[in-house]
């Protein structure tokens, strides 16, 4: 931990008091995250050039991004707005005054020779991200979130014996979100990253596209024997999918433990995960904050955010996912797990609420949205917005289960017909497929009498106390009704007749 960065918790040893996760070969795992979220502004953080992805090289960059002499940065208000929204979403302090600093280093895709970032006084300070992991509530504390500009890209393909430089990405607004080393397993780390992803996409400050690099996570990983001081960390860069994230961290944990068990030490380093080999590989030894010679950028005044701006933003923000999830638990009586799943995106939450309202059956609505509907959406790789079954249709279908018209199994057939477009109207499909449960007890009684008459041996065994024989009779009755009877009703009638 660097001495010069005061907003980072200087008492890392206090971490010793935090709950321990599952030990790996007797070692405790410690993970902290740094995430770069690309902000959804139309233009760059300090220039008017567009932030569009995939344009012809060097067509989306201005004099400021090219670092032409005399070109001066001007702060983009939209980027600040998004930083405030993030701070409020994670219960952080929004600094009234924060400062931009120059982070000096040389790289061909950084023509100024420094990156404009925030160092000693970031715009967002503290805060926390909460989520459930296997039914247990977890809190990961944030150290800070600061605004900074992205660098350009070096292009190596299409060039022989040289590299190309594309400055389209230079000056793209980023929010770097830094956690305390609070995570205790790869599963917890991935759950944190998913929750953070959910928050930034939910409030709309980031599109969350990991493939395009809009949401880039670096995982700092170390291991120690319980009770020992924090071990030396290695930082895994650019984990661009949640699956790789878990693989990379698990590999890194095993690698570090092996080093220590072999009597070697772990050197602080930056490593890259190679999805092809499933291994992490050292890229460079880690530089210290001092190497960057940070100092306040004289081209930019301090960033001043009035209380009114913060309060106006707070008033205009929509319900946050964790607040909505708590409401689902309270108002609909759903388990925490369901509430978390249903608030994975605004669209899923809205769909669920429409089904719950239409059917008056929130738990059934939850089961169908998380079950049958998700399954179909996943297999066809569709977003819920493109669902072939509308919330109105699903609500009607669920009403037909709860009022006893159809069984759960029959409902799946109706869902199928709705999904494939075979039919549009739930009641018409039930009618056409003859799926109505037999609710007329007179009709059912007649069938049961026939079943009893035809299975005299089973009847005798039931009377002798054999429950298996009872099941056989229920089975026979269901078969005779072609599955249209309500099994509970069949059971009841049988008991009455045999009892
Ligand atoms: P740097 O200045 O090198 O970026 P920071 O102090 O900002 O370092 O920490 C970067 C990240 O590493 C933070 O998310 C922090 O929680 C995490 N971290 C710090 N020490 C450890 C450690 N011993 N093990 C795991 N993660 C750590
Ligand atoms: Mg850092």
What would you note in describing this structure?
It is built from 16 helices and 17 strands. It has 499 residues and is an alpha+beta fold. The chain has three domains: 25-309, no CATH class; 319-433, no CATH class; 441-498, Orthogonal Bundle (Arc Repressor Mutant, subunit A). Strands 1, 2, 6, 7, 8, 11, 12, 13, 14 and 15 form a ten-stranded mixed beta sheet that branches. Strands 5-4-16 form a three-stranded antiparallel beta sheet, with no helix packed on it. Helix 13 (441-454) crosses helix 15 (467-480). The longest helix is centred in the middle third of the chain and has 20 residues, at 242-261. The N and C termini lie far apart (76 Å). Bound molecules: adenosine-5'-diphosphate (ADP) and magnesium ion. Magnesium ion binds next to loops. Magnesium ion (MG) binds next to loops.
Question: Which key terms come to mind for this protein?
Answer:
disordered N terminus, alpha+beta, 17 strands, 3-stranded antiparallel sheet, 16 helices, binds adenosine-5'-diphosphate, binds magnesium ion, Arc Repressor Mutant, subunit A, 3 domains, elongated, 499 residues
Largest sheet: 10 strands, mixed
Shape annotation: elongated
Bound ligands, named by name, code or SMILES:
adenosine-5'-diphosphate, magnesium ion
Number of domains: 3
Distance between the termini: 76 Å
Please state the average pLDDT score: 92
Number of strands: 17
Q: What is the CA-based Rg, rounded?
A: 30 Å
Q: So how many helices? A: 16
Share of helical residues: 25-40%
β-sheet strand percentage: 15-25%
List unreliable stretches of 5+ residues: 1-13
Structural class: alpha+beta
């Amino acid at each position: 931990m660097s001495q010069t960065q005061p907003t980072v918790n200087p008492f890392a040893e206090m971490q010793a008091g935090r709950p321990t996760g599952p030990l790996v070969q007797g070692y405790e795992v410690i993970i902290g995250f740094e995430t770069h979220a690309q902000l959804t502004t139309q233009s760059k953080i300090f220039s008017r050039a567009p932030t569009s992805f995939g344009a012809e090289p060097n067509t989306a960059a201005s004099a400021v991004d090219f670092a032409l002499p005399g070109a001066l940065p001007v702060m983009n208000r939209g980027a600040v707005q998004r930083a405030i929204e993030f701070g409020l979403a994670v219960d952080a302090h929004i600094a009234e005054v924060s400062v931009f600093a120059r982070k000096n280093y040389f790289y061909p895709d950084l023509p100024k020779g420094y990156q404009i970032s925030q160092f000693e006084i970031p715009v967002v300070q503290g805060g926390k991200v909460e989520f459930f992991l296997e039914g247990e509530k977890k809190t990961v504390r944030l150290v800070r979130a600061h605004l900074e500009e992205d660098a350009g890209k070096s292009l190596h393909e299409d060039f022989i014996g040289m590299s190309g430089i594309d400055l389209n990405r230079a000056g793209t607004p980023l929010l770097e979100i830094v956690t305390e080393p609070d995570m205790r397993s790869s599963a917890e780390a991935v759950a944190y990253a998913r929750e953070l992803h959910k928050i930034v996409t939910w409030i709309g400050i980031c599109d969350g596209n990991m493939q395009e690099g809009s949401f880039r996570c670096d995982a700092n990983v170390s291991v120690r024997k319980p009770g020992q001081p924090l071990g030396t960390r290695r930082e895994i860069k650019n984990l661009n999918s949640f699956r790789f994230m878990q693989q990379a961290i698990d590999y890194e944990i095993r690698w570090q433990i092996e080093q220590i068990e072999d009597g070697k030490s772990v050197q602080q380093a930056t490593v890259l995960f190679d999805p092809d080999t499933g291994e992490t590989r050292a890229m460079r030894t880690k530089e210290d904050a001092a190497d960057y010679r940070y100092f306040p950028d004289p081209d930019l005044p301090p960033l001043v955010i009035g209380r009114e701006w913060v309060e106006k933003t707070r008033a205009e923000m929509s319900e946050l996912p964790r607040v909505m999830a708590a409401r689902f638990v309270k108002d609909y009586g759903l388990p925490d797990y369901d509430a978390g799943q249903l608030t994975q995106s605004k669209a899923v939450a809205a769909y669920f609420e429409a089904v719950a309202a239409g059917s008056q059956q929130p738990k059934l609505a939850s089961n169908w949205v998380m079950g049958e509907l998700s399954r179909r959406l996943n297999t066809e790789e569709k977003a819920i917005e493109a669902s072939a079954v509308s919330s109105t249709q699903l609500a009607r279908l669920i009403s037909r289960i709860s009022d006893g018209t159809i069984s759960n199994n029959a409902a799946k057939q109706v869902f199928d017909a709705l999904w494939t477009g075979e039919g549009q109207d739930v009641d018409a499909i039930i009618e056409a497929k003859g799926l109505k449960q037999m609710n007329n007890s007179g009709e059912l009684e007649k069938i049961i009498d026939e079943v009893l008459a035809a299975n005299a041996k089973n009847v005798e065994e039931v009377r002798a106390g054999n429950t298996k024989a009872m099941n056989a009779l229920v089975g026979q009755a269901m078969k005779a009704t072609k599955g249209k009877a309500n099994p509970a009703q069949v059971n009841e009638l049988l008991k009455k007749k045999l009892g």
